[in-house]
Specification:
alpha+beta; 2 helices; GMP Synthetase, Chain A, domain 3; globular
């Protein structure tokens, strides 16, 4: 389970350098909190799209390690 959380963290960090990222959860369901300067001036929908696009490879296919993001909080820094 830690490997999936690490993969989520790495994917978001690559897309949003310098972001503060918290990932919790297991069994395919995760809660994510991201704080980034990249969110400044963006709507909630735009911020969520940035994060979800970063982890989309982890959510693709029938055997995807991430089945759902139960909670996503994006905070402008």
């Amino acid at each position: 389970m830690q490997q999936v959380r690490d993969a989520i963290l790495s994917s978001i960090a690559a897309a949003l350098p310098g972001a503060t990222i918290e990932v919790q959860g297991e069994a395919g369901h995760y809660s994510i909190v991201v704080k980034s300067t990249a969110f400044t001036g963006k709507s909630t929908l735009e911020r969520h799209r940035l994060v979800l696009s970063a982890i989309s490879p982890l959510m693709a296919g029938d055997a995807a390690p991430v089945h759902a993001v139960d909670s996503l909080k994006t905070i402008p820094a």
